[in-house]
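User: quick one, sequence for these C-alpha cells?
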C-alpha cells in the first residue's frame, strides 16, 4: 500500500519545502521546520510514522503518491529534499519495509531521473546517515552512498553529506554514544542529534538551494 505526501495545503505566503525520506528524516523534519518557520512551510513525505519512504523499490513504485497530497493533488514544492538508503542494507525483501542491497542503485536511478525532471522544483539529495553502532552495516551504507553520489551526479542533483557530518562529530563506527547519547544514529537518534543535524547541515543546504537561481543550460 502506497503512502502519500503531507495534508497541509501549500503556503502562498512562504516558500514550500518537502522532505521525502526515511524514518531518520521524520526525526529531523520538525527541527528543520522550526528553524525555517519564518521563511518556509516544511512538511514530510510520506505523512506519518513507520519507516518513511522505505526501500528504493517501494519509493519508485509509490513515487506519484509520495509527490501528492492525500486527496491526490500533486505537490510541487520550491525545494524537494530527498533521501533513500537505510532500508537497503541487507538482502531481505519485505515489500514496503526493506529491499536487497542490489536493488538500491537501479531504483534510486529511476527515482532521481524522475525528480530531476520535475518542473519548477529544486531537488537536493541527502547522503544517508551512518549506523554508528555497527561497522558492518555502515560499510554497506557507505557503499550505497557511493552509488548514490554517482547517480546524483548523472542527473546534476546536488547532495549534502549527512554521513560525513555525523561521523566528523562522533568518530568512526562502532561507537556506543554519539552527541553524548547512547545509541544515537544507530540508525535513529533523539532530539539532540536531530537538532544538530538540522541546524548545522540540512537547513543551510536547503537555504542555499532556496535562494540560488536555477542553472540555465
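Assistant:
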Amino acid at each position: 500500500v502506497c503512502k502519500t505526501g503531507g495534508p497541509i495545503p501549500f503556503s502562498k505566503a512562504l516558500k514550500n519545502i518537502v522532505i521525502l525520506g526515511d524514518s531518520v528524516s521524520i526525526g529531523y523534519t520538525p527541527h528543520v521546520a522550526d528553524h525555517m518557520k519564518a521563511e518556509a512551510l516544511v512538511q514530510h513525505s510520506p505523512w506519518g510514522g513507520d519507516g518513511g519512504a522505505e526501500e528504493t523499490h517501494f519509493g519508485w513504485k509509490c513515487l506519484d503518491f509520495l509527490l501528492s497530497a492525500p486527496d491526490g493533488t500533486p505537490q510541487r514544492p520550491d525545494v524537494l529534499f530527498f533521501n533513500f538508503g537505510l532500508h537497503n542494507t541487507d538482502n531481505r525483501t519485505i515489500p514496503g519495509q526493506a529491499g536487497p542491497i542490489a536493488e538500491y542503485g537501479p531504483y534510486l536511478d529511476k527515482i532521481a531521473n524522475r525528480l530531476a525532471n520535475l518542473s519548477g522544483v529544486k531537488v537536493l539529495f541527502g547522503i544517508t546517515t551512518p549506523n554508528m553502532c555497527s561497522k558492518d552495516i555502515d560499510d554497506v551504507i557507505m557503499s550505497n552512498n557511493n552509488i548514490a553520489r554517482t547517480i546524483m551526479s548523472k542527473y546534476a542533483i546536488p547532495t549534502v553529506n549527512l554521513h560525513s557530518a555525523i561521523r566528523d562529530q562522533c568518530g568512526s563506527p562502532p561507537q556506543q554514544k554519539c552527541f553524548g547519547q547512547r545509541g544515537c544514529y544507530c540508525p535513529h537518534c533523539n532530539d539532540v542529534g536531530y537538532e544538530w543535524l538540522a541546524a548545522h547541515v540540512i537547513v543551510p543546504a536547503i537555504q542555499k538551494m532556496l535562494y540560488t537561481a536555477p542553472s540555465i543550460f
